[in-house]
Design goal:
By secondary structure, the protein is mainly alpha-helical. It has one domain (23-243). 66% of the residues lie in helices and 0% in strands. The protein contains 9 helices and no strands. It has helices at 23-33, 35-48, 55-70, 77-87, 89-115, 121-148, 155-169, 171-194, 197-234. Helix 5 packs antiparallel against helix 6 and helix 6 (121-148) crosses helix 9 (197-234).
């Protein structure tokens, strides 16, 4: 739209199937809009993780809010977090134990093998394998907790789907793991190198929620495509996640059909000299 755009002429409208913003652009827009909410989520999450056995439910609750942000859906930090923490506790609690043990074993391996590298090249191979396994397990954890906070499935089904989605997502799932580790680990690494408490405060204030937001943006589209959408399609219903886009009270049927990009442009007729009138 130019500076001297003629507002008396209409174009063909904006097509709903037209160019859309990239996920990267949307991520940074959401990050900017929700920056203070991310800090709040990080603080709440940290408090709820103090009893180690609540890490699973707290993680699912945080993903409930962050997942909504990733699809640009409104979410209330405390009420949505607390609601998910209570309602999804039964499923997310055992998931938390399973992934805590699995990732804990990976962390122990990553600590032991570098210390033993000088003894044999076998330890180098084992360290690389352990690192890859860790990235895969972490990616599957993202998928698992996103499902736990979104759809009602058994622990067995969630773990099975998480494993499948990790394979289907390929390098994107691994990328989510790498970026999440960087978001959480970089401030800690810099603190150990520099010793600046201000750098460490970044980790305490936003690192966990930032990692979760990154994982939601990368991983949740796969959950939508391969789990959520097929489920609602099978039962003949629309995905309720998109109800917020519909007018109040009209969640079951659209008010109008979007014709954006299909209208015939209207151009205001130019006045001819014969039709001009003079005032005497």
């Amino acid at each position: 739209m130019g500076l001297f755009y003629n507002y008396q002429e209409s174009g063909s409208g904006v097509s709903k199937n037209g160019p859309k913003k990239s996920r990267i652009r949307i991520f940074f827009e959401v990050f900017g809009r929700k920056f203070w909410n991310l800090i709040l989520i990080n603080l709440i999450y940290g408090i709820f993780c103090i009893p180690i056995f609540t890490i699973g439910p707290a993680t699912a609750a945080a993903f409930k809010v962050l997942k909504n942000y990733s699809i640009e859906k409104n979410a209330f930090v405390w009420s949505d977090f607390w609601k998910s923490f209570k309602e999804d506790f039964k499923v997310s609690f055992p998931l938390g134990i399973i992934y805590f043990i699995a990732l804990g074993g990976v962390a122990i391996g990553m600590y032991i093998y570098p210390e033993s590298m000088g003894e044999s090249d076998l330890y180098k191979v084992l360290m690389v394998i352990t690192l890859l396994v860790g990235l895969i397990v972490l990616a599957s954890a993202f998928f698992a907790f996103l499902m736990a906070s979104t759809i009602k499935l058994s622990v067995k089904d969630i773990l099975k789907n998480a494993f499948i989605l990790t394979i289907v997502s390929g390098w994107k799932g691994i990328l989510a793991s790498v970026l999440a580790i960087i978001a959480i680990g970089l401030p800690i690494f810099l603190f150990l190198q520099i010793g600046n408490l201000l750098i460490l405060s970044v980790n305490l204030l936003i690192s966990q929620s930032l990692a979760g937001l990154i994982a939601s943006f990368i991983c949740y589209p796969f959950v939508q495509k391969y789990v959520i959408e097929p489920y609602y399609k099978a039962i003949g219903k629309d995905n309720p996640e998109y109800d917020y886009l519909k007018p109040e009270g009209m969640q079951d049927a659209p008010v109008f059909n979007d014709k954006g990009g299909e209208e015939v442009p209207v151009v205001k007729a130019k006045k001819s000299g014969k039709n001009k009138k003079t005032i005497s």
